[in-house]
Write a structure and sequence with these properties.
- Two copies of one chain form a homodimer.
- Chain A is α/β, with parallel strands linked by helices.
- Helices cover about 35% and strands about 25% of the residues of chain A.
- Chain A has helices at about 30-40, 55-65, 80-90, 110-125, 165-180, 185-195, 215-220; strands at about 1-5, 25, 30, 45-50, 70-75, 100-105, 125-135, 135-140, 150, 155-165, 200.
- A seven-stranded mixed sheet of chain A has the order 5-4-1-6-10-7-11, sandwiched between helices.
- The longest helix of chain A has 14 residues, at about 110-125.
- At the A-B interface, strand 7, strand 8, strand 9, strand 10 and helix 6 of A face strand 7, strand 8, strand 9, strand 10 and helix 6 of B.
């Protein structure tokens, strides 16, 4: 059985909005609804765990009903950092769940096809992480906006979510994070820290992360609404 | 006086199209027309040099007339690599041009506002390069799609075009490239190689590079056509 953990507990500090980012509107729906609908429509996902700030739990329940998210199993309260929110989601996974797809609600362009590809990779290799080849030239700028040097991008990828893992693997990785107190920017990094291989799943379409307010317009256009 | 060099001589090898990438259609226009129109409408640009494959020069002339590109000064033939095409453009700049904005036609979302910001930076600092903070986590994968490690993205930027420079600076950089035979992935790298500072201009909206065929759809939606 495969579950999704959708993380929607972040505050959009770069958005200029004093509001939970995942609950900002994109067209007629809150941002998080698009991810919920993608996982709802994906045949490889049986359960959804939603992580929101404690104050949002009731609103999230209503939202899930409104958009017919029948796979929603539980809504749990998030923590101070993203990895605390993911941990809270991992803790409530029922024992029959062997694979978990972790996704940020700030990526509303996720599709059922992408979710399935990461699940397939996780079933075969233990992990499947949405990834895009580095297209642009990469610069290191150590002092403000003055370039220090160009970075060789030949073997660089950007990674997004969903990031899907076998449950024992990601639990082991999160247990180690707790012991060491390390901070990570994605779940794959937690797996890397225990020396286990992480497998990338190339996904060519844009899998935008909504970070600045311009991204809301971009996302709306790409969702064709 | 400020000129633009628009580079449209590349073949879209990753597009599956046996065709000059910049001449693929996005809605009702060839891709290169969007960049031409952005530079035409930018008050900080007085002249446009277009670089295409030799076989495309006549078609490009017709295209420029059709879209009313009155600033088009010259169409020159490109070279084997991108930097050869840029060099051919630099060689025909008239002496009154003190600043040049180099742009890839594969980035049809460029706007007059972005062009102006890079020109302003070049007038003040000698260079102005369209740049975006690294939003996604970055992974190094040395063997296929297996992650070697996470790269610290804190001071990493992706850079795009336009990249605008004072003409003596970029000419000096290209002269050195010729001497050393080095290959660069962008014009800023040529300036870095002569030890001169390159200034990034942060641009929040998506400045997509059309690389795979899915990007044509994305670009069409974002151009609202």
């Amino acid at each position: 059985m495969t579950a999704a953990i959708i993380v929607a507990a972040g505050r959009g500090e770069r958005m200029g909005a004093n509001y939970d980012k995942a609950f900002l509107s994109i067209g007629p729906r809150p941002m998080v609804a698009y991810s919920m609908m993608a996982f709802e429509s994906c045949a490889d996902i049986q359960q959804i765990i939603l992580v929101v700030r404690r104050e949002r739990i009731d609103a999230a329940k209503g939202m899930a009903q409104m958009f017919g998210i029948s796979k929603l199993q539980q809504i749990v309260a998030g923590g101070a950092h993203r990895q605390d929110s993911v941990r809270n989601g991992l803790e409530v996974l029922p024992p029959e769940v062997q694979t978990v797809s972790i996704h940020d609600a700030a990526r509303p362009l996720v599709t059922a096809a992408l979710i399935s590809e990461t699940v397939r990779s996780a079933l075969k290799h233990g992990s499947g992480v949405a990834a895009h080849r580095m297209v642009d030239t990469v610069k290191l700028a150590e002092k403000g906006t003055v370039v220090s040097r160009t970075v060789d991008r030949a073997k660089l990828w950007t990674v997004q979510t969903p990031q899907t893992f076998s449950v024992p693997l990601i639990r082991q990785a999160y247990a180690r994070l707790k012991e060491t107190g390390q901070q990570v920017t994605d779940d794959a990094a937690a797996v890397e820290l225990i020396g286990e291989p992480v497998r990338l799943v190339e996904w060519a379409p844009l899998n935008l992360k909504v970070t600045v307010s311009e991204d809301l317009t971009t996302a709306a256009l790409l969702l064709r609404i």
